[in-house]
Structures are given as structure tokens and as C-alpha cells.
Amino acid sequence: MITKQNIAEIKNILGDKNYFDILRSMAGAYVDGTREIVHTFREPFFKVDEDEKNKYLKIAQAIPCVKGFDDKNIELQFASQSSVPDLLERIVVSDLMDETAVHGLYQRLIDRYEIENGFLILLFHGVYDVMSRTSDGNEIDESEEVYDFLLCAICPVNWDKPGLKYDPSGRICAKQLQKVVDKAETGFIWPAFEERSANKDKCLFYSQKPKTPQHKVIVGALDCTDRMTATENRLKFEKMISHVILNANLGTSDEDKLIQKLNLAFGEIVKTDQSVTPENESILTDLVLQDICDKAGISEVLRDQLVIEFRKFYDKVIEVWPKIWWLYDPKTAALARYNKNRERMKTVMRQAARVCESSGQQDLAQEINEMLEEMHDA
Fold this sequence. Notes:
- The protein has helices spanning 4-15, 50-61, 84-93, 99-112, 215-221, 230-247, 252-273, 286-295, 300-318, 324-327, 330-358, 362-377; strands spanning 23-31, 37-44, 73-77, 118-133, 139-159, 164-166, 172-174, 179-181, 186-190, 192-194, 197-199, 202-207.
- The chain is of the alpha+beta class.
- The chain contains 12 helices and 12 strands.
- It has 3 domains: 4-227, no CATH class; 231-328, no CATH class; 333-377.
- Strands 1, 2, 3, 4, 5, 8, 9 and 12 form an 8-stranded antiparallel sheet that branches. Strands 6-7 form a two-stranded antiparallel sheet. A two-stranded antiparallel ribbon has the order 10-11.
- Strand 6 (164-166) and strand 7 form a beta hairpin.
């Protein structure tokens, strides 16, 4: 299993001042809007112009994303008998000089990458001496193995924004529009860096927008077993809730309350999981979901329907139960806590108003009731 520590180590070596010792060469292909390769290039990384080198490096550094673990970064397993690892091996071994293999990868990506405009495919070949570490995490001056890897980044190419510029002749005029390379939208690193070693049966996939990752690239171009990001899992779960509420002829407010109750429960579990390793993080099974619904005070009718929907998708379709934190929305949980505290405050204020009335403090009781009305209208 790839961990945050594995991703962080790769990100650190790309951010190190000696990164030019890591990245050996780079290659690229610009693909226009008709999905034709217009231009290709390949050169040793140390020969790249210094200003351009920093720009390329920033693109490469975005692919390993520690904070996006299981979301912007997901671990992918190649399909059984897939030929893609062999293709990537040829590219790495040749230091990006096997033109047939490189073009083969370009074409696989071009055929599956979904975009309307042009895009730039960038390939980086890196070599990292993995130093041995003591039990307390300190490195010793001894190489454990050489991690030889390929980093791929796909960047959309768009026209820059129109605007004005100052002309040397003294005029203010419209600037000439140019095509600009945006940040990487999709990418991957192969082999996967797992347990500080190369795993050629896996790759680390990157998606700038985990809400809509390029599944055709995952399945078609890379020939990997498809999987959803954490964001996709959360949105799918929320759709299940919407479907259950709709079938029960309830409204939007009921849907919001149900989502908030579940997120409050998820939040407590996620908080507890902060002290455990990734492989021990809490999983949401159908039985766990049923138990959470019961403890959250969700009606049996809604609970049973939600469990059925949940089981139908994860147990029958995906065949993998999700981690609870994938379905957790901190903003929704925060709103739920706010609403819960608000209702508690209103209850205390009503009790205070009654006490004031019984003790003859009518003015104070009236002021409290007016505040309660304002809170109700807000």
C-alpha cells in the first residue's frame, strides 16, 4: 500500500536543490485541438534553459500530492496481463530515447484524454538513490536500491486572457493573444514508490480535479483497474441520500438534516482515526452504516432504504467498502455543529424567559423572546 510518507519522499526529492541530480531527461508532445501531434522534443534536463527548467519542475512537483492522498493522488493497479508496464519499462530504460515506445504512450493518452482544446504531454525520467534508514528514520550513507521512474504530466493549453499592453511607441493597444500551458490536470508516476521501493505492478495517478478525474485515461490509456477518488465517493453517497429522501417524499430540509447527522457521526470516527495507520482506518460497511444511523437517531425507514442503496452500489458494483473519511465533509459537519449549538441555545433561552416571567422580570423575558423570534426569522 502506498502511504503519504512514500508520496512525501518523492515530492521532497523533486523539491530538493539538487533535483537536477534526480531528473535526467524530459520529453514532450504538443497536441492541437484536432488531436494531432504538432511538435515533439526530448533533451537532457540539465540542458534546459534555467527559466524554463523551473517552470517544468513546478509542473512535475504537482504530481505527487501528499494532501490529496486518496483523492488527487490515487493508487492504481495494472490489469492482469497488461502490456502497459512493459511499454513504460522501455521508455524508462531508454532514458526517453525509445521513440516507438514514447510515441506509443503519447498515442494511448491522446486517444483517451478528454479535452476540447490542445494539451501538452510531458515526460520526465528520474533516478533516485534510496538511502537505507535506521529504525528511528535517520538516513545512513548507503544506497538501498535505485528507484528509476517515469513521471508524466498532461497540461491543458489555452489562450491567455485578452487585455491591453503598453507599446514602446507610446500607445496603449490590445496585446497579442498567445497559447499558454496551464497547470497539470492529469498525470502519473511509474513505478509506484511503495515501502521505499519500486512496485512495477502499480502507478500513482494524479488528478487536479478529483471531482472529475479522467477515468478513460485510467482504464484505457494506463490499462489499470478503475477506482473512484475520495471526492467521487462522497458525492456518490450524497446522491444515495438524495434518492432515499426523494423516494420517501421528503424535502430538501430533510435531506440536509440527514447529511448533517451522518457527517457529525463520521467526524467523530475520523477524529479517532487520526492516530492509526492508513491500513487501519475505519471502513464503512453496510452494518456499520446501520449502526451509525441508529445512534444518530435516523428513522428505521430512511435507515433501511439507505443501507439497501449503499449495499447495492459498494457490495455489488464496486465490491470494495469505502473508508469513512472519504464520505466525510468537514464543512457539512461544522454546519451541523453550528445548528446543533444554535438549537441548544434557543432551548436554554426559552427556559430563561420562563424563569424571568415567573420571577416578575417581564422586560427581560420579553427581550429574550424577541431575540428568539429574530433567530427564528434568520
